[in-house]
Amino acid sequence: MSDPYFSYNRKKFKKQRQTEGFQYFFVILCASVLAAGMALVLYFNSLPTIAQLSEYEPTLTSQIVSSDDVVIKTFGAYKSEKVSVDQMPDNLKKAIVAIEDKNFYSHRGFDPVALARSTVSNIMARKIVQGASTITQQLARILFLSQEKTFDRKFKELIIAYRLEKTIPKDQILEMYLNNVYLGEGAYGVEAAAEIYFNKKVEDLNLAESSLIAGLPQAPSVYSPYQNMNLALKRRSKVLKRMVEEGFITAEQAGEANNAKVLLSEEARRTALKKAPYFNDFVMRELKEKAGLTEDEIIQGGYKIYTTLNYDMQKEAEKSLRTGMKEWGLSKPYNQAALISYDTTSGQILAYIGGKDYSETQFDRVSQAVRQPGSSFKVFVYATAMEKGLTPFTKYPDKPIKIGNWSPANYGGKYRGEIPLYKALAYSSNSIAVKLIQDVGVEDVIRMASRLGITTPIAHDPTIALGSSAVKLIDMATAYGVFANGGVKVEPYAVERVETITGNIVYQANNNYKRIIDVKTVAYMVEMLKQVIKQGTGRASAIGRPSAGKTGTTDSYRDAWFMGFTPDIVTGVWVGNDNNTTNGSLTGGTIPAIIWRNYMKAVTKDKPVMDFMYPEILVDKIKDNSTGEIVKETVGTTGAMQGDQNVKFNKSNVDLDNLDFEETRPKTNSTQKQQPVNSYQDDSPPVPSNNSSLRDFSPAPVPITQVRIKKTDEPPLPGQKTVGNAGF
Length: 728
Known about the structure:
With 728 residues, this protein is of the alpha+beta class. It has 22 helices and 18 strands. The chain has a 5-stranded mixed β-sheet, with helices on one face. A 5-stranded antiparallel β-sheet has the order 5-4-14-13-12, with helices on both faces.
């Protein structure tokens, strides 16, 4: 039997412990609530006050700078007086509300439905990928917050938007937004935009002009009529359609405004188009793709964007292209040209021209246009053949060929009989290129082109040997750079690094290097491409120092190319018509080669003369002792083709094919006789006269004592079946 005293005390103790537990829990709960409350108070106190609104000034200082310290674009604020909401046209206010925030006058700072939709998307992606910002939220971000995509910034944005809605009338919020929103070309606010785009006061804007400006906030540089008129007009149409849907205007009014011609301010046009504008557009795309920066972040981040562009070289490129096009009478708006030049080993873009006149068209023909390359594509066929065991001395019959119903012909109907491959490439023989792709295989040529840098789809068809599959100029330049760089592929790039105003680096370029083809294949290809300039279709490109390249001309002279390189610079030139019409008898060996020559001469004039660095190729001529005639030539190399070792070279040089040819000159009139062509004909020059002394190909050793070939982590190149009669 238990003691009543102890039983009573046990119950009392248990009850006391329960009471103490509840008290302890209550104290902890109160402390937590108090701590959370204090944290929220501190958090809210850290947010800017509404009273600071009147002190806001744009702080935009982002700049794009060339490698030689020239500021080629500044995202600076355009100074103008702010205007009251009463001075702004009704159509401008309605256009902004229709396209940016149709529920502006009914919500309390944020749109719950749109916010819920974007929140689900952001949680699924684990980052901010979709916005649902109202005009009030946008104003909060413009005035108080950064452009970074974080949940903390989004939360602050909602709080400030709610405060704004409780403190300020709707019309005043709209007024502040329209006075501070960035509208492209350095314009902050609608008054600045009206002046920059139309040379007007904001109150004088008509419906067409108002709807164009209203379409700018989403992506100011993309929809700027100075940058891309077609996109600006499409965006204007969307704004007008939304205004009709919201009942702000009639369909007839929208149609009239949609058909109105855009009359931009010519004075502002000159300041809007900065130095190297196509390159600046490429920089913006690269920052978005590689650095993950949005347009708002780039423009309003106060960054210094260091690029690879050499502005002195850019000016030489522009001069060469402009002069060449003028001399050849290519003055119509659809007559176009493009050029890209980059450092062989680093990939740094040195000069970049996406078109003849940026003010007329902003379409980038370096990285966006897809055009047929003509015979400049033949390098992929020949590189495949060299990799499979053929040599520059392998002989092929230059004679008519037929594949099914396709009968590709040589330029001018000229055939040369049995000739070595180096001459076939130099003279751009179509028949041999087609026979060669049959022997080495279409699939292997496609693989070679893709390995070297071609990103566009390539048809599985023998016609690709003559350039029937369309490509991008930047891809062709990348591919030719592999030959210039000893078989190592490097991607051309534009942005070196991005720094904040305090000097912190937020992005640093990190290019990748990858061995694509072995040094022996490179040595063969470079020497053959040197012969194109020495005695072949590219003679007009000669610059008086070691260089290599290939011409290209497509069916009916629609596209003309010259792709070439020295040991340190790769440059590609394209000339053609935007409407894909013929250019008379314009070939790759004419104006593209001349543009290339004039530019490369100018930018290499102060550089030391140097040859390509690869092992010497030895040719052993075997004679018949009874007749003394050469019966066979065997080809070998000094040193190893790969591995981490020193390769020795002979210092002597061989003078190759020192022939005298007339320089190709510009046409003098538009009635110049055109050569008959079949599909994918190219620009082979006339065969030298019989009394011209054509020496056999004999690769020259490089003028250095040794070169170190780096090891590669890439697996060995796959062995290929030997094709043809190598060595002959």
